Amino acid sequence: MFHLDQTSHPDGLQSVDQKSSEINNQNDDAQLRSLGKRPLLNRGFGFLSMLGLSCSALLSWEGILVTSIAGLSNGGPAGVIWGFLVNWIGTISVYCTLAELASMAPTAGGQYHWVAMMAPASYNNFLAYITAWLTVLAWQALAISVGYIIATMLQGIVVLANPAYVPLPWQTVLIIWAVMLFAVVMNSTTSRILAKFEGLILVLHLAGFFGVLIPMVYFAPHNEAKVVFTGFLNEGGWSSQTLSFFVGIPTIAGSLLGADCAVHMSEEIQFAAIVVPRALVYTVVINGSLAFAMGIALMFCLSDVTAALEAQTTMFYPFLEIFYSSVQSTTGACLMAGIVLVLAVASSVGVYASASRMLWSFSRDRGLPFDRYLVKLSKNSLPVVSICVTLGITMLLSLIALGSSVALSALLSLAIAALFSSYLLVCGLLLWRRTTGSIQSHLTSVEVLNSGNLRWGPWRIKEPLGTLNNMFACIYSIFLLFWSFWPQTTPTTPETANWSLLVFGAVIIFSVVWYALRARHYFKGPIKEV
């Protein structure tokens, strides 16, 4: 199914997991120059370290514990299982398509760079600008979402250990700040240290899965298979069970969000044209498998749906109640939840790395205000200014929790909508290009930046599966984008509304108006630096 052309790398893949060598860096830098970009960042990541970063950022088996709230309310146990399966299949399709693009052009800009390459010449700058804003928005929203989830999870664990504790919004904000400061410190180290850290997290990610799964499954009474696979619920008040099921799907998709962080780290990876696609696909397959197993186990151990849903009002997340009811021990449940919490904190490092690199890349192409400052690098060749700006944005957005936790939690829906909008654009353009036969062989020597000339990278899906997969990726992206704006309950009030549509629309309108008034005069797509 997958075609891997090794002619561009005579050593094959043997050195992917080894320390970077001068020859490897020269090959990667030469490809980056062919895309019009100067190599400025150190390539400290190999395959395993990037797989660790992607897996920790995706955080799927941990994420299904968190996102099961929406699935239980709108869908029930069966809704969680089948909803995740739908999202997993769709996400694999999307990431396989992104993997093909990442192999063609492994740059930190990712989606907007690909749009500039593939869109018609008369529209490529405009579409690239909109796509860049969507991607920046998505990763900034994801950064604050991860911080909010970690903060409320910690408060939920404290409630589990001490029911007399009452979580306060200002405490949530301070915890978010503490987590984000940790992420900034880790991202401000050298790329080699960060790579080693992510390799360690990959081991903990896999070990933690069994550390949570085994005691939960062993000690808990189990539901019948009929309840797990056919037991649907409609707690959102929707007119039909089918509608309720679809409303619950986008939030479950949040557990599969973020694997494309490898794309935005491309300029810090050895053999990026092969490692990035592999990291994308391996991440969604490995994490999806773990998450699917965890979701099934969680639903089998869900002895009391009502108690689990009611726990949301006190402990924020039903899985904390499920842990306790499974092991019948506060200490045991807190230890299990602590594993999830530690890995969630580790995920903030990968999310911050991707968010800051995307901000840096867009600034490098003069797409953001104060770009001359945002592109500055440290002595270790790290985008420290972009990292600090991402911290500032997160700290400001976290203040929303002082007024409305609902508005802050809606940022996950916003991240889903913004990311999949950018995915839809690049998947649609690639489908157009590949069906018109305008993509040349990997061995063809052409310049691809803003020239209309495209060539495949060393990693691609063979035809006709490539085109069929590309089509399915477009369909799934449209499907998920549509449902991501729906509220979780009806009738809708200001407290239960999904405000992501308002913010998403505001960003789109702002970027279009700003492009028409100012940006079209200075933003010319990815700048050709060499």
From TrEMBL:
<feature type="transmembrane region" description="Helical">
    <location>
        <begin position="240"/>
        <end position="259"/>
    </location>
</feature>
<keyword id="KW-0812">Transmembrane</keyword>
<keyword id="KW-0813">Transport</keyword>
<feature type="transmembrane region" description="Helical">
    <location>
        <begin position="468"/>
        <end position="486"/>
    </location>
</feature>
<keyword id="KW-1133">Transmembrane helix</keyword>
<feature type="transmembrane region" description="Helical">
    <location>
        <begin position="40"/>
        <end position="61"/>
    </location>
</feature>
<dbReference type="GO" id="GO:0016020">
    <property type="term" value="C:membrane"/>
</dbReference>
<feature type="transmembrane region" description="Helical">
    <location>
        <begin position="279"/>
        <end position="300"/>
    </location>
</feature>
<keyword id="KW-0472">Membrane</keyword>
<feature type="transmembrane region" description="Helical">
    <location>
        <begin position="381"/>
        <end position="402"/>
    </location>
</feature>
<feature type="transmembrane region" description="Helical">
    <location>
        <begin position="335"/>
        <end position="360"/>
    </location>
</feature>
<feature type="transmembrane region" description="Helical">
    <location>
        <begin position="81"/>
        <end position="105"/>
    </location>
</feature>
<dbReference type="GO" id="GO:0022857">
    <property type="term" value="F:transmembrane transporter activity"/>
</dbReference>
<feature type="transmembrane region" description="Helical">
    <location>
        <begin position="200"/>
        <end position="220"/>
    </location>
</feature>
<dbReference type="InterPro" id="IPR002293">
    <property type="entry name" value="AA/rel_permease1"/>
</dbReference>
<feature type="transmembrane region" description="Helical">
    <location>
        <begin position="170"/>
        <end position="188"/>
    </location>
</feature>
<feature type="region of interest" description="Disordered">
    <location>
        <begin position="1"/>
        <end position="21"/>
    </location>
</feature>
<feature type="transmembrane region" description="Helical">
    <location>
        <begin position="498"/>
        <end position="517"/>
    </location>
</feature>
<dbReference type="Pfam" id="PF13520">
    <property type="entry name" value="AA_permease_2"/>
</dbReference>
<protein>
    <recommendedName>
        <fullName>Amino acid permease/ SLC12A domain-containing protein</fullName>
    </recommendedName>
</protein>
<feature type="transmembrane region" description="Helical">
    <location>
        <begin position="408"/>
        <end position="432"/>
    </location>
</feature>
